[in-house]
Protein 1
Amino acid sequence: VARVESYRGFVFGSHAAQGPGLAEFLGGLASAFDNMLDRAPAGTVSRFGGELRLEYRGNWKMFMENAVDLVHPNFVHRSSVEAARAQPQALAADGPTQQGAQMFLANGMRAPEWDKVPLHAFPGGHVYMGGFYRSGVIAPERADPVYERYRAQLVERHGAEKAAAVLAVDRFNNLVWPTVSVNSRFAALRVVQPLAADRTVVEVQCFRLEGADAAMHELTLQFVNLAASPASLVASDDLELFERCQRGLQGAASDWIDVRRGALADRRQPDGSTLGSGTSELAIRHQFATWLQYMSQ
Amino acid sequence: VKDELETFVLREARLIDERRFSDWLALFSEDGIYWVPTRSDQVSPQEALSLVYEPKALLAMRVARLERPDMHVQSPASRTVHHVSAVEVSGDLEVRSALVVAEWRAGDARWFAARVLHRLRREAQELRIVLKRVDLIDSEAPQRAIAVPF
């Protein structure tokens, strides 16, 4: 590895001897790591719990597109949404937080609701989805004792105003393109490892928010188990669809895919980022523009 | 008792192969748990990630999904053989066994091998699963989508 740099303890390597430094590379997405650390009452996080590893016979870019795509949940995740809706007693039995059930049901939102989740695209292919919890996809705040205690610990560290601001960061996946997807709220990240043009491994890691109670760490593990395991009711359908897309694209039927959805509504922001609505293909356009730029250097 | 317990785990495996998932779910006690840890020395789901850790309530969702036509990762459906052998029974209704699962789906064959622990309980004369723990020999390896229970 030609260069190694770290950002607040997260170590990155680059095979390119020349190029932007890490801070410049991360740009607007450094905030995803900041927010994860801010969410730890002791101000630090540590890896724990080992890792989960997923594999699919498809191109690595599909994972990064899918992580910020809000058109697919209604079709791809229909079976887990309906299974959750059909089991109200299961929802009630899912612990005090109902975190798992909530996650399954969230995928059942319709396009107009997903459209309220803004996509923020930054130079370098980085993208995050904002407004996730505010839109009611997953409850932003909870009233259970575990969460109340955690909030109190965070207020002790930051004061009421900053603690509220830290918890109000309502992004879901934060993509540091082309390799990392960060979920600050659930203290997890996924690292994409391309093995071949049609073979990819994704490693899922999670973090202990130091200073928080063990119950919070257990919620992190539960979220990652349910959302990101190869046996997950959600992720397994994503993996299946990646493989189908790969087979379809290798066929001779078409050379081009239309990714213009939402293009006319892209809004350039003063900080150089671009804002689009949840079901826009802004993220895909943005990632491929970056890919083309890297490949033609 | 050994015969009864062995018959129970063999039938449990056959119900999965026959895709009788609701009947399979019914074998679990109300507080029953289906667990596939990532580490063979893992003593609890609180210390490390798990491929699956599902109390019956969540397992019911898994089963409900397996019965839906729009579960993409089971369209087409898998055909499986759960080969259970080396069954050992202990006095307190614990059954240890070796498991090999052969799976055929959409032109691909896959194999899984695991040690399995069943912790059982007698409820109104019927045996019920309190814990089914499956330790895959390659639990830390990258896995493609896993849809059919072990």
Note: Chain A touches chain B through 51 residues (CB under 8 Å).
Protein 2
Amino acid sequence: MSCSLLHTQVADEQEYALADYEAGLPRWCPGCGDHGVLSSMQRLLVAEQLQPENTVFVSGIGCSSRFPHYVKTYGFHGLHGRALPVACGIKMNRPDLTVFVVMGDGDCTSIGAAHWLHATRYNMNLTALLLDNNIYGLTKNQTSPTTPLAHASNTHPYGSSLPPLNPLQVTLGLTNASFVAQTAEWVPAHMYATLRAAYRHRGFSFVRILQRCPVFTPGLYSAAVKKPDTVELLVHDDGVVVPELDGLYTRQQRHDPRDIDAARRLADAPDQIRLGVFYRNETNPVYEDLLQVRRRSTDEKIKLLNEELDRYAV
Amino acid sequence: MATITQDRAETAHTPAAAAMRPPQRITQHILEVVSDSGEGAQKCGQIFGSVSAKMGNGVWTVEIIPAEIQPPPRSAPGASGNRIRIGSAPVTNWGDETNLVVAFNEQALLGRHRLGALADNAIILIDDQWKSHDNERIRAEWEAAMLEMSSRRYRIIGVPMEAQCLTLVDDARKGKNMFALGLLAWIYGRDLDRIREEIAFAFRKKSEEVYEKNVALLELGVQWAEQNLDFRFEVPPIGTPEPRVVMNGNQALALGAIASGMELIGMYPITPATSASHSLAEIFQQYGGILHQAEDEIAAVGFSIGASWSGKTAFTITSGPGLALKTEFLGLAVMTETPLVVVDVQRGGPSTGLPTKVEQSDLLASLFGQPGDAPHVVLAPATIEECFHAMITARRIAETFRMLVIVLTDANLATGVQPFRRPEPVADWFAPPPDLSPVPDGMKPFQWDPKTGLSRRFIPGMPGGMHTTTGLAHDESSRVAYDTANNQKGCAMRSRKLAVLHSTLTPPTVFGPDSGDLLVVGWGSTKGAIEEAVERAREEGLSISSVHLRFLAPMEPGLKEIFQRFRKVMTVEINYSDDMGDPYITDENRRRGQLAWLLRAQTLVDIDCWTRVLGEPMRPGAILRAMKSHMPEGGAA
């Protein structure tokens, strides 16, 4: 059996330290969940000793999409909702690069929703993070698809009228989904372990990160933050196991991430926060593998093109 | 032998009557094959055009396409087929009215008649099964059609196409096109061996039996024509020693993209652009190329930008509605100075418009469609040959200037088939693999040369080049910079690059004398028709010249100087403009042709225009009439 999560490699000597991945001081609000994600990510970069010049962070537009500016690798900070097409183009052209995608909830589940569905189906070897604070922050407090029902915002001052979209359900319902996980910014150890599992998975790893916006959704998840035993951890050797959380997070369920039916059932629970790997399948086809071609030298191309032109010769 | 109604009728002649008469020698002829969709008239026309080119004729073919795949049979607007102009000199456009038609039914013919596509003395070969059809309604439709066309002096000859084909196949719908090809082969003396080769290629994925059946139908058509027709035409070939190739504009774009060394396209299906991607899909991977059919037009360009940013310049191909969807990403390419080639195969608009038909209405949208100041290059090849070479030029400019390059072609170039000088690929055309050597110490990702705006592009994998490329206003280090000075500088640097490119261009060549009464300015696929009209005008003693533009942004140099040597300047374009004399239209409120608008702004010359949006290429005869009615007042200079 092949399982990439077991192939942990420990560098003898660490070439890159934390400082090698730091770029500038983040300009997010104090208390923003984005800070925690950035810390976990930089920790992962150090742990995996990723070469900065061969690592790329791609983002869209929104608070969280400033992420690439704060990591000293290559970055592409593009259009609202369109991080995934750019990331897919990079990965297809350069499978040698490690590519992370950072999106917000408006970015991924609203304006860029079509790309989310199709990127899941392409199953390219990307690590995609959905930094989901259930609100539009950068544009100042508008309802997003994941905003809880009845939550008041500037666009719905009397409370949102539609039930929130569940990104886990959507992703788990898609053909060729290969890695779906959920973690929370207030449980850094779990977040780090989840990011690492996502990075090590070969295929499109989708991680939804539950976050609070200290300005517009500060009360979100307050029960879960205060009472860890209301949160359920999904644990499995093939998923995420964080022994240091055992004391605090007593509700744990063993869930085999290969079981798609169980995964869908576990995701379909609006009132129960579950963290862990819901689904993982490394046997799904990976798009860049299917399209990879042998690059040709100019001489080879000239020879082929001459043959082709001869077919059109008069 | 069937006869046709009343005095429109004509029976085919006695056997071998024609064979004894020598063919009529002519220098050019326009013929077309029309049928219901799905009856293969297009394939028939394509093979005829291809063989004519191979026999050394000048050729220009145009597809006659309804927008639907299978519109209702026997309907006038559903006519589908191919129109071929052949000549003893290079043919640069589709010409005027059609001289000879092979029609599979009278409704398809009627559709062409109603469009005014046929010459008054056109010869028409038509399947006459409908005249005596079992269905009374069909017989009545035939009668009505013949009556409607009786105002013209067409020579209509009934051909028992259905009956003849049924002697060889069970379903005549799947064989008439080869029979029709046989008729044409005999009339124009085409080389049957070459036709057989083309049939073998067209059906290369089918069984040997399919090939043999098609060849038998072809030969049946030849035999019938030989025994029944009393006329033949001879269009002598051009004596051209140089090797030539024959293809349509979309095939030329595809091969040009390969010749440019580009290795990745993100695309989404849209008419009439998609056949370029079909051509690429067949062969691109042999060249190490990747074709990604994206989930939508936006993702297609985003994917290409991602690929370009991480290495070699990539490209995307679309048409008007797709160009509109890509707008935001085009602005991003400009802002991030990511090289990108975008081909827009223009069709009729606005909105879904005329999906299969030609128009030149995207010029202003491609120049100014991006919100914010987004300087970039717009190129317009004028011939099928130029479609090939434009891709090489576009790729090179995109990479050298870190720039978006939009290539505007149109449905006329995309589907027109024309022989041209065979390209001889050289290594210089092909983009080399990206150089990923380390970034020199201290160099910044937007280290603009203040004089030229040029800077070295950093590509992932280059040690020391780590930075985040952003669509936000940024400084030379690619740091987000909202301050006034940086924004002014960034805009200036991106704009400066266009001026530098402009400084490398040479003024366009005037077709005809470089001064006179009237100068016609064109762009894109109208070149051949305009120049033919100018030639005819000069034969009539009119002082008219023309000039054709390839670079629309930056505009080619020296235009104002050229314009000042003519008493009047006008554009001829396939886009909408108000005509002077229309209700409410004044010189002040008149909306002009898109190039006219641009040239007026650029040169401050009072430029007139004549434009039409008929969903078809310009006819030289129509341009000639328009030029005559636009001559400057006060007689010749």
Note: The first strand of chain A starts at residue 55 and ends at 59.
